[in-house]
Amino acid sequence: MLSSRIEDLPWVDAFSLPSLFDTRASLYKEWHDFVFFDRGSQLFGLLNFAVHGNPYDGKRGYGAALAFLSGPGGKVHTALKLSPLHQLKVSPYDPDFLTKEVSVSYQATEFTIKGKIDDVSLDLTIPVLLPPVTMTQIGFDVLSKSRINVEMVGAAGEMAGIWDKWVELPKLSVVGTIGTPGTSYTVDTTTGYQDHEGGRFDWGGVLGWDTGVLLCDPTSPGEPEKVSFLFYRYGPSGESSYGGVIVRTAEGKERFFGAENMTITRTGEFSGERAYLPGVTKLLYPDYRPHVPATTVFSGTESGDSIEVTFTPRAVCTIVVPSTTGEAETTFNETHCDAALKAVVGGESYDKVIPCWFESVRPRGRFDDGP
Amino acid sequence: MALRLRKFLDELLDVMREDSPRELRRLIHDASGLTYLQTLDGEKAVIIVKNRQIAIAGRANKKDVNVRVHITRDCLFDILEGRLTLVEALDGGGLKVFGDPLTLLRCYAIWERVISLARKSPRFYFLTYELR
Lengths: 371, 132
Prior knowledge:
The structure holds two protein chains of two kinds.
Chain A: H1 9-12, E1 28-38, E2 43-52, E3 62-70, E4 76-84, E5 89-91, E6 94-98, E7 102-107, E8 110-117, E9 120-127, E10 133-134, H2 135-145, H3 150-162, E11 163-180, E12 183-200, E13 209-214, E14 226-234, E15 240-248, E16 254-258, E17 262-267, E18 273-277, H4 280-284, E19 295-302, E20 305-322, E21 329-345, E22 348-363
Parallel strand pairs in A: 18-20
Antiparallel strand pairs in A: 1-2, 1-12, 2-3, 3-4, 5-6, 6-7, 7-8, 8-9, 9-11, 10-11, 11-12, 13-14, 13-22, 14-15, 15-16, 17-19, 19-20, 20-21, 21-22
Chain B: H1 5-19, H2 21-30, E1 35-40, E2 43-50, E3 53-57, E4 67-71, H3 73-80, H4 86-92, E5 95-99, H5 101-118, H6 122-129
Helix pairs in contact in B: 1-2, 1-6
Protein backbone atom coordinates (compact mmCIF):
# COMPACT_ATOMS: atom_id res chain seq x y z
CA MET A 1 0.00 0.00 0.00
CA LEU A 2 1.59 3.26 -1.13
CA SER A 3 -0.77 5.77 0.41
CA SER A 4 -2.25 6.17 3.84
CA ARG A 5 -5.43 7.77 5.07
CA ILE A 6 -5.86 9.84 8.20
CA GLU A 7 -7.86 6.88 9.52
CA ASP A 8 -4.68 4.76 9.27
CA LEU A 9 -2.82 7.09 11.60
CA PRO A 10 -3.31 5.15 14.87
CA TRP A 11 -1.29 2.19 13.64
CA VAL A 12 0.99 4.01 11.18
CA ASP A 13 2.11 6.45 13.91
CA ALA A 14 2.05 3.96 16.80
CA PHE A 15 5.17 2.85 18.63
CA SER A 16 6.74 -0.23 17.00
CA LEU A 17 7.88 -1.89 20.19
CA PRO A 18 10.41 -4.68 19.68
CA SER A 19 9.61 -8.26 20.53
CA LEU A 20 10.27 -9.39 24.08
CA PHE A 21 12.79 -11.83 22.57
CA ASP A 22 14.56 -9.28 20.36
CA THR A 23 18.29 -9.60 21.02
CA ARG A 24 18.75 -5.91 20.12
CA ALA A 25 15.90 -4.65 22.31
CA SER A 26 18.36 -2.74 24.52
CA LEU A 27 19.23 -0.60 21.47
CA TYR A 28 15.59 0.28 20.77
CA LYS A 29 14.63 3.95 20.47
CA GLU A 30 11.59 5.62 18.96
CA TRP A 31 10.06 9.06 19.12
CA HIS A 32 7.52 11.64 17.97
CA ASP A 33 8.85 15.07 16.94
CA PHE A 34 6.18 17.76 16.80
CA VAL A 35 7.33 20.98 15.13
CA PHE A 36 5.42 24.22 14.52
CA PHE A 37 5.78 27.96 14.13
CA ASP A 38 3.04 30.34 15.19
CA ARG A 39 3.26 33.55 13.19
CA GLY A 40 1.13 35.52 15.64
CA SER A 41 3.22 34.87 18.74
CA GLN A 42 6.41 34.28 16.71
CA LEU A 43 6.95 31.06 18.65
CA PHE A 44 8.85 28.13 17.17
CA GLY A 45 8.43 24.83 18.99
CA LEU A 46 9.99 21.40 18.80
CA LEU A 47 8.50 18.83 21.18
CA ASN A 48 10.06 15.39 21.28
CA PHE A 49 8.56 12.37 23.07
CA ALA A 50 10.82 9.33 23.07
CA VAL A 51 11.29 5.83 24.39
CA HIS A 52 14.89 4.69 24.87
CA GLY A 53 16.26 1.26 25.69
CA ASN A 54 14.61 -2.08 26.29
CA PRO A 55 10.94 -1.28 26.95
CA TYR A 56 10.63 -4.46 29.03
CA ASP A 57 13.58 -3.65 31.30
CA GLY A 58 12.21 -1.41 34.01
CA LYS A 59 15.71 -0.52 35.22
CA ARG A 60 17.30 0.47 31.94
CA GLY A 61 14.54 1.56 29.58
CA TYR A 62 13.03 5.02 29.97
CA GLY A 63 10.89 7.69 28.42
CA ALA A 64 12.05 11.22 27.66
CA ALA A 65 10.18 14.41 26.82
CA LEU A 66 12.05 17.39 25.41
CA ALA A 67 10.99 20.93 24.51
CA PHE A 68 12.96 23.44 22.44
CA LEU A 69 11.16 26.76 22.18
CA SER A 70 12.41 29.79 20.30
CA GLY A 71 10.38 32.93 20.93
CA PRO A 72 10.42 36.43 19.50
CA GLY A 73 13.97 37.64 18.93
CA GLY A 74 15.35 34.10 19.04
CA LYS A 75 14.95 33.81 22.83
CA VAL A 76 15.49 30.14 23.62
CA HIS A 77 13.95 27.98 26.32
CA THR A 78 14.66 24.24 26.62
CA ALA A 79 13.49 21.50 28.94
CA LEU A 80 14.17 17.80 29.26
CA LYS A 81 12.46 15.34 31.58
CA LEU A 82 13.00 11.60 31.84
CA SER A 83 10.33 9.18 33.03
CA PRO A 84 10.84 5.69 34.43
CA LEU A 85 9.10 2.94 32.48
CA HIS A 86 6.61 2.21 35.23
CA GLN A 87 5.25 5.74 34.71
CA LEU A 88 5.18 5.52 30.89
CA LYS A 89 2.54 4.03 28.64
CA VAL A 90 3.17 3.48 24.95
CA SER A 91 1.75 0.75 22.75
CA PRO A 92 1.90 -0.69 19.23
CA TYR A 93 -1.80 0.12 18.76
CA ASP A 94 -1.81 3.91 18.99
CA PRO A 95 0.54 6.92 19.05
CA ASP A 96 -0.12 7.70 22.71
CA PHE A 97 2.79 8.60 24.96
CA LEU A 98 1.48 8.90 28.48
CA THR A 99 3.59 9.75 31.51
CA LYS A 100 2.75 11.03 34.96
CA GLU A 101 3.68 14.61 34.03
CA VAL A 102 2.95 14.98 30.32
CA SER A 103 0.76 13.08 27.90
CA VAL A 104 0.41 12.85 24.15
CA SER A 105 -2.85 11.18 23.23
CA TYR A 106 -4.62 10.63 19.94
CA GLN A 107 -8.35 10.35 19.46
CA ALA A 108 -10.80 11.22 16.66
CA THR A 109 -8.11 12.50 14.26
CA GLU A 110 -6.46 14.84 16.71
CA PHE A 111 -3.62 14.76 19.20
CA THR A 112 -3.73 16.45 22.54
CA ILE A 113 -0.59 17.30 24.47
CA LYS A 114 -1.15 18.19 28.10
CA GLY A 115 1.02 18.58 31.15
CA LYS A 116 4.54 19.71 31.89
CA ILE A 117 8.02 19.03 30.58
CA ASP A 118 9.99 20.28 33.57
CA ASP A 119 9.08 24.01 33.69
CA VAL A 120 7.33 24.11 30.30
CA SER A 121 3.56 23.71 30.51
CA LEU A 122 1.64 22.46 27.48
CA ASP A 123 -2.04 22.48 26.65
CA LEU A 124 -2.32 21.83 22.93
CA THR A 125 -4.89 20.37 20.57
CA ILE A 126 -3.38 19.15 17.31
CA PRO A 127 -5.84 18.12 14.59
CA VAL A 128 -4.29 16.12 11.76
CA LEU A 129 -4.98 17.90 8.45
CA LEU A 130 -3.28 15.58 5.94
CA PRO A 131 -2.68 11.81 5.95
CA PRO A 132 0.58 10.29 7.19
CA VAL A 133 3.41 9.57 4.77
CA THR A 134 5.62 6.54 5.39
CA MET A 135 9.26 5.83 4.56
CA THR A 136 8.06 3.27 1.98
CA GLN A 137 5.87 5.85 0.26
CA ILE A 138 8.70 8.39 0.13
CA GLY A 139 11.07 5.75 -1.24
CA PHE A 140 8.69 4.69 -4.01
CA ASP A 141 7.93 8.31 -4.80
CA VAL A 142 11.62 9.12 -5.24
CA LEU A 143 12.20 5.94 -7.28
CA SER A 144 9.29 6.74 -9.58
CA LYS A 145 10.73 10.15 -10.37
CA SER A 146 14.48 9.54 -10.38
CA ARG A 147 16.86 7.06 -11.92
CA ILE A 148 18.60 4.76 -9.46
CA ASN A 149 22.22 5.74 -8.90
CA VAL A 150 25.06 4.69 -6.61
CA GLU A 151 24.48 7.61 -4.23
CA MET A 152 20.81 6.69 -3.83
CA VAL A 153 21.68 3.06 -3.10
CA GLY A 154 24.36 4.12 -0.58
CA ALA A 155 22.02 6.36 1.37
CA ALA A 156 19.12 3.88 1.19
CA GLY A 157 21.41 1.11 2.49
CA GLU A 158 22.52 3.29 5.40
CA MET A 159 18.92 4.21 6.26
CA ALA A 160 17.64 0.65 6.01
CA GLY A 161 20.36 -0.51 8.40
CA ILE A 162 19.19 1.89 11.07
CA TRP A 163 15.51 2.68 10.82
CA ASP A 164 12.63 0.31 11.39
CA LYS A 165 10.19 3.16 11.05
CA TRP A 166 10.08 6.64 9.54
CA VAL A 167 6.72 8.37 9.26
CA GLU A 168 5.76 11.98 8.77
CA LEU A 169 2.53 13.83 9.35
CA PRO A 170 2.99 16.64 6.84
CA LYS A 171 0.33 19.00 8.08
CA LEU A 172 -1.06 19.59 11.54
CA SER A 173 -3.02 22.35 13.15
CA VAL A 174 -1.61 23.35 16.55
CA VAL A 175 -3.90 25.25 18.90
CA GLY A 176 -3.55 26.04 22.60
CA THR A 177 -1.12 27.49 25.09
CA ILE A 178 2.49 26.97 26.03
CA GLY A 179 3.92 28.39 29.22
CA THR A 180 7.49 28.98 30.31
CA PRO A 181 8.46 30.71 33.57
CA GLY A 182 7.20 34.25 33.24
CA THR A 183 5.83 33.89 29.72
CA SER A 184 2.69 32.39 28.22
CA TYR A 185 2.24 31.89 24.48
CA THR A 186 -1.03 31.40 22.65
CA VAL A 187 -0.60 29.19 19.61
CA ASP A 188 -2.99 28.89 16.67
CA THR A 189 -1.35 27.72 13.47
CA THR A 190 -1.73 25.22 10.65
CA THR A 191 2.03 24.94 10.10
CA GLY A 192 2.47 21.94 12.38
CA TYR A 193 4.47 18.89 11.33
CA GLN A 194 5.31 15.63 12.98
CA ASP A 195 7.89 13.00 12.24
CA HIS A 196 8.12 9.67 13.95
CA GLU A 197 11.23 7.53 13.78
CA GLY A 198 12.38 4.38 15.46
CA GLY A 199 14.94 1.62 15.23
CA ARG A 200 17.27 -0.70 17.12
CA PHE A 201 20.73 0.75 16.66
CA ASP A 202 23.52 2.39 18.59
CA TRP A 203 24.23 6.07 18.05
CA GLY A 204 27.90 5.18 17.61
CA GLY A 205 27.09 3.77 14.15
CA VAL A 206 25.08 6.71 12.85
CA LEU A 207 26.68 8.94 10.22
CA GLY A 208 23.89 11.48 10.32
CA TRP A 209 21.63 13.52 8.10
CA ASP A 210 20.34 17.01 7.35
CA THR A 211 16.58 17.20 7.29
CA GLY A 212 13.83 19.73 7.84
CA VAL A 213 10.67 21.37 6.63
CA LEU A 214 9.66 24.87 5.69
CA LEU A 215 6.63 25.51 7.88
CA CYS A 216 4.50 26.78 5.00
CA ASP A 217 1.08 28.37 5.16
CA PRO A 218 -0.36 27.85 1.67
CA THR A 219 -3.21 30.25 2.48
CA SER A 220 -0.62 33.00 2.76
CA PRO A 221 0.16 34.60 -0.64
CA GLY A 222 3.26 33.30 -2.36
CA GLU A 223 3.75 30.13 -0.31
CA PRO A 224 3.74 26.54 -1.56
CA GLU A 225 1.90 23.69 0.17
CA LYS A 226 5.10 21.99 1.22
CA VAL A 227 8.87 22.16 1.08
CA SER A 228 10.84 19.46 2.85
CA PHE A 229 14.34 18.07 2.52
CA LEU A 230 16.49 15.16 3.56
CA PHE A 231 20.17 14.54 2.82
CA TYR A 232 21.37 11.30 4.33
CA ARG A 233 25.05 10.66 4.98
CA TYR A 234 26.65 7.35 4.01
CA GLY A 235 29.99 5.81 3.13
CA PRO A 236 32.83 4.54 5.29
CA SER A 237 33.05 7.79 7.26
CA GLY A 238 29.93 9.65 6.21
CA GLU A 239 31.70 11.84 3.71
CA SER A 240 28.97 11.35 1.08
CA SER A 241 25.31 12.19 1.19
CA TYR A 242 22.25 11.67 -0.94
CA GLY A 243 18.75 13.09 -0.80
CA GLY A 244 16.88 16.04 -2.11
CA VAL A 245 14.20 18.65 -1.70
CA ILE A 246 10.51 18.09 -2.37
CA VAL A 247 8.30 21.04 -3.28
CA ARG A 248 4.53 20.77 -3.62
CA THR A 249 2.57 23.73 -4.90
CA ALA A 250 -0.77 24.81 -3.49
CA GLU A 251 -2.29 23.32 -6.70
CA GLY A 252 -0.78 19.92 -5.90
CA LYS A 253 2.06 19.92 -8.47
CA GLU A 254 5.14 18.26 -7.01
CA ARG A 255 8.83 18.42 -7.88
CA PHE A 256 11.71 16.43 -6.41
CA PHE A 257 15.11 18.13 -6.70
CA GLY A 258 17.63 15.31 -6.32
CA ALA A 259 21.05 15.80 -4.77
CA GLU A 260 22.74 15.06 -8.11
CA ASN A 261 21.29 18.31 -9.48
CA MET A 262 21.84 20.44 -6.38
CA THR A 263 24.65 22.37 -4.78
CA ILE A 264 24.89 23.08 -1.06
CA THR A 265 27.03 25.95 0.21
CA ARG A 266 27.68 26.89 3.81
CA THR A 267 29.19 30.20 4.91
CA GLY A 268 30.04 31.99 8.14
CA GLU A 269 29.32 31.08 11.74
CA PHE A 270 25.99 31.44 13.54
CA SER A 271 26.32 33.96 16.37
CA GLY A 272 22.81 33.88 17.88
CA GLU A 273 21.44 32.14 20.94
CA ARG A 274 22.28 28.49 21.59
CA ALA A 275 21.09 25.94 24.09
CA TYR A 276 22.57 22.58 25.03
CA LEU A 277 20.83 19.39 26.15
CA PRO A 278 21.19 17.52 28.36
CA GLY A 279 22.42 20.16 30.81
CA VAL A 280 25.50 18.15 31.76
CA THR A 281 26.83 18.68 28.24
CA LYS A 282 28.01 22.10 29.41
CA LEU A 283 29.66 20.52 32.44
CA LEU A 284 31.44 17.85 30.40
CA TYR A 285 32.36 20.08 27.45
CA PRO A 286 32.36 23.70 28.67
CA ASP A 287 33.90 24.92 25.41
CA TYR A 288 31.87 22.77 23.02
CA ARG A 289 30.35 24.91 20.33
CA PRO A 290 29.60 22.91 17.20
CA HIS A 291 30.00 24.78 13.96
CA VAL A 292 26.65 26.10 12.71
CA PRO A 293 26.89 28.10 9.47
CA ALA A 294 25.49 31.62 9.38
CA THR A 295 23.86 30.67 6.08
CA THR A 296 23.30 27.42 4.22
CA VAL A 297 22.10 27.54 0.62
CA PHE A 298 20.48 24.70 -1.32
CA SER A 299 20.17 25.42 -5.02
CA GLY A 300 19.34 23.30 -8.02
CA THR A 301 17.33 22.75 -11.16
CA GLU A 302 15.21 19.90 -12.43
CA SER A 303 13.26 19.58 -15.69
CA GLY A 304 12.90 23.33 -16.15
CA ASP A 305 12.02 24.00 -12.52
CA SER A 306 14.45 25.64 -10.13
CA ILE A 307 14.96 26.17 -6.42
CA GLU A 308 17.19 28.18 -4.14
CA VAL A 309 16.67 28.12 -0.37
CA THR A 310 18.86 30.21 1.94
CA PHE A 311 18.66 29.08 5.56
CA THR A 312 19.54 31.62 8.25
CA PRO A 313 19.42 30.20 11.79
CA ARG A 314 17.62 32.19 14.49
CA ALA A 315 18.21 29.80 17.40
CA VAL A 316 20.01 26.50 17.85
CA CYS A 317 19.58 23.70 20.36
CA THR A 318 22.47 21.22 20.42
CA ILE A 319 21.64 17.79 21.81
CA VAL A 320 24.54 15.43 22.48
CA VAL A 321 23.59 11.76 22.59
CA PRO A 322 26.13 9.16 23.78
CA SER A 323 26.58 5.71 22.33
CA THR A 324 25.50 3.05 24.81
CA THR A 325 28.15 0.59 23.66
CA GLY A 326 31.22 2.78 23.20
CA GLU A 327 32.72 6.22 23.52
CA ALA A 328 31.17 7.77 20.38
CA GLU A 329 28.63 10.59 20.62
CA THR A 330 26.18 12.04 18.16
CA THR A 331 25.33 15.72 17.93
CA PHE A 332 21.86 16.91 16.91
CA ASN A 333 21.76 20.58 15.95
CA GLU A 334 18.07 21.47 16.05
CA THR A 335 17.67 24.83 14.38
CA HIS A 336 14.90 27.35 14.03
CA CYS A 337 15.69 29.09 10.74
CA ASP A 338 14.37 31.67 8.35
CA ALA A 339 14.30 30.03 4.94
CA ALA A 340 14.38 32.43 1.99
CA LEU A 341 12.70 30.44 -0.78
CA LYS A 342 13.16 31.38 -4.43
CA ALA A 343 11.68 28.75 -6.69
CA VAL A 344 9.81 28.05 -9.87
CA VAL A 345 7.80 24.84 -9.79
CA GLY A 346 5.11 23.83 -12.26
CA GLY A 347 4.78 27.39 -13.52
CA GLU A 348 4.38 28.82 -10.01
CA SER A 349 6.99 31.28 -8.75
CA TYR A 350 7.92 31.69 -5.11
CA ASP A 351 10.00 34.40 -3.46
CA LYS A 352 9.35 34.51 0.25
CA VAL A 353 10.96 34.03 3.66
CA ILE A 354 9.30 31.13 5.49
CA PRO A 355 9.98 29.81 9.02
CA CYS A 356 11.80 26.51 9.02
CA TRP A 357 12.95 23.61 11.16
CA PHE A 358 16.42 22.32 10.21
CA GLU A 359 17.92 19.29 11.93
CA SER A 360 21.55 18.42 11.30
CA VAL A 361 22.94 15.24 12.84
CA ARG A 362 26.61 14.24 12.89
CA PRO A 363 29.03 12.19 14.94
CA ARG A 364 30.39 14.60 17.56
CA GLY A 365 33.90 15.75 16.78
CA ARG A 366 33.85 14.43 13.20
CA PHE A 367 32.63 16.51 10.26
CA ASP A 368 31.32 18.84 12.88
CA ASP A 369 30.49 21.49 10.35
CA GLY A 370 26.73 21.35 10.00
CA PRO A 371 24.02 22.11 9.42
CA MET B 1 11.39 13.08 50.96
CA ALA B 2 14.82 13.54 49.41
CA LEU B 3 17.26 10.65 49.44
CA ARG B 4 20.03 10.92 52.07
CA LEU B 5 23.53 11.48 50.74
CA ARG B 6 25.07 8.30 52.18
CA LYS B 7 22.20 6.17 50.92
CA PHE B 8 22.57 7.83 47.50
CA LEU B 9 26.29 7.03 47.33
CA ASP B 10 25.72 3.43 48.49
CA GLU B 11 23.06 2.95 45.82
CA LEU B 12 25.23 4.62 43.19
CA LEU B 13 27.97 2.09 43.92
CA ASP B 14 25.43 -0.75 43.68
CA VAL B 15 24.30 0.48 40.26
CA MET B 16 27.91 0.71 39.10
CA ARG B 17 28.72 -2.76 40.43
CA GLU B 18 25.75 -4.14 38.51
CA ASP B 19 25.85 -2.11 35.27
CA SER B 20 29.40 -0.78 34.93
CA PRO B 21 31.81 -3.07 36.82
CA ARG B 22 34.75 -2.30 34.50
CA GLU B 23 34.34 1.46 34.91
CA LEU B 24 34.06 1.01 38.68
CA ARG B 25 37.32 -0.96 38.79
CA ARG B 26 39.02 1.78 36.77
CA LEU B 27 37.58 4.46 39.03
CA ILE B 28 38.82 2.67 42.15
CA HIS B 29 42.26 2.30 40.57
CA ASP B 30 42.44 6.00 39.68
CA ALA B 31 41.10 7.14 43.05
CA SER B 32 43.35 4.93 45.15
CA GLY B 33 44.41 6.71 48.35
CA LEU B 34 41.60 9.26 48.34
CA THR B 35 39.56 10.06 51.41
CA TYR B 36 36.92 12.40 50.10
CA LEU B 37 34.56 14.29 52.37
CA GLN B 38 31.37 15.27 50.54
CA THR B 39 28.89 17.66 52.12
CA LEU B 40 25.46 18.22 50.61
CA ASP B 41 23.44 20.93 52.36
CA GLY B 42 25.29 20.13 55.59
CA GLU B 43 24.79 16.36 55.27
CA LYS B 44 28.15 14.53 55.30
CA ALA B 45 29.50 11.38 53.72
CA VAL B 46 33.05 10.16 53.24
CA ILE B 47 34.20 8.16 50.23
CA ILE B 48 37.26 6.10 51.13
CA VAL B 49 39.26 4.40 48.40
CA LYS B 50 42.11 2.15 49.46
CA ASN B 51 43.40 -1.37 48.97
CA ARG B 52 41.36 -1.74 45.74
CA GLN B 53 38.17 -1.16 47.70
CA ILE B 54 35.72 1.70 47.86
CA ALA B 55 33.55 2.37 50.89
CA ILE B 56 31.11 5.02 52.05
CA ALA B 57 31.36 6.14 55.66
CA GLY B 58 29.72 8.74 57.85
CA ARG B 59 32.97 10.18 59.17
CA ALA B 60 36.74 9.91 58.95
CA ASN B 61 39.74 11.16 60.84
CA LYS B 62 40.36 14.76 59.91
CA LYS B 63 43.99 14.05 59.10
CA ASP B 64 43.01 11.33 56.63
CA VAL B 65 40.69 13.53 54.56
CA ASN B 66 42.53 14.87 51.49
CA VAL B 67 39.57 16.36 49.58
CA ARG B 68 36.60 18.31 50.90
CA VAL B 69 33.68 19.30 48.66
CA HIS B 70 30.71 21.30 49.92
CA ILE B 71 27.74 21.83 47.64
CA THR B 72 24.12 22.83 48.04
CA ARG B 73 21.32 20.86 46.41
CA ASP B 74 20.26 23.88 44.37
CA CYS B 75 23.79 24.37 43.14
CA LEU B 76 24.20 20.67 42.31
CA PHE B 77 21.10 20.62 40.12
CA ASP B 78 21.92 23.99 38.56
CA ILE B 79 25.24 22.48 37.46
CA LEU B 80 23.73 19.19 36.28
CA GLU B 81 21.02 20.99 34.31
CA GLY B 82 23.45 23.41 32.67
CA ARG B 83 22.28 26.59 34.40
CA LEU B 84 25.63 27.08 36.14
CA THR B 85 29.17 26.33 35.08
CA LEU B 86 31.62 25.01 37.65
CA VAL B 87 33.38 28.38 37.66
CA GLU B 88 30.10 30.20 38.31
CA ALA B 89 29.23 27.71 41.06
CA LEU B 90 32.60 28.30 42.75
CA ASP B 91 32.32 32.06 42.37
CA GLY B 92 28.77 32.05 43.74
CA GLY B 93 29.74 30.03 46.83
CA GLY B 94 27.28 27.17 46.17
CA LEU B 95 30.28 24.92 45.55
CA LYS B 96 33.42 24.95 47.70
CA VAL B 97 36.37 22.64 47.27
CA PHE B 98 39.44 22.16 49.44
CA GLY B 99 42.50 20.05 48.75
CA ASP B 100 45.79 20.18 46.97
CA PRO B 101 45.42 21.05 43.29
CA LEU B 102 46.69 17.75 41.88
CA THR B 103 44.32 15.73 44.05
CA LEU B 104 41.44 18.01 43.05
CA LEU B 105 42.28 17.49 39.39
CA ARG B 106 42.22 13.70 39.94
CA CYS B 107 38.80 14.03 41.57
CA TYR B 108 37.55 16.19 38.71
CA ALA B 109 38.64 13.60 36.16
CA ILE B 110 36.88 10.86 38.14
CA TRP B 111 33.62 12.81 38.49
CA GLU B 112 33.76 13.68 34.81
CA ARG B 113 33.81 9.98 33.98
CA VAL B 114 30.99 9.23 36.43
CA ILE B 115 28.85 11.99 34.91
CA SER B 116 29.67 10.81 31.41
CA LEU B 117 28.58 7.33 32.42
CA ALA B 118 25.43 8.72 34.03
CA ARG B 119 24.25 10.07 30.65
CA LYS B 120 23.95 6.49 29.41
CA SER B 121 22.13 5.20 32.45
CA PRO B 122 18.61 6.18 33.40
CA ARG B 123 19.27 4.42 36.73
CA PHE B 124 21.90 7.05 37.53
CA TYR B 125 19.55 9.82 36.43
CA PHE B 126 16.56 8.70 38.48
CA LEU B 127 18.74 7.97 41.50
CA THR B 128 20.31 11.43 41.31
CA TYR B 129 16.89 13.08 41.12
CA GLU B 130 15.90 11.29 44.33
CA LEU B 131 18.40 13.62 46.02
CA ARG B 132 16.21 16.59 45.14
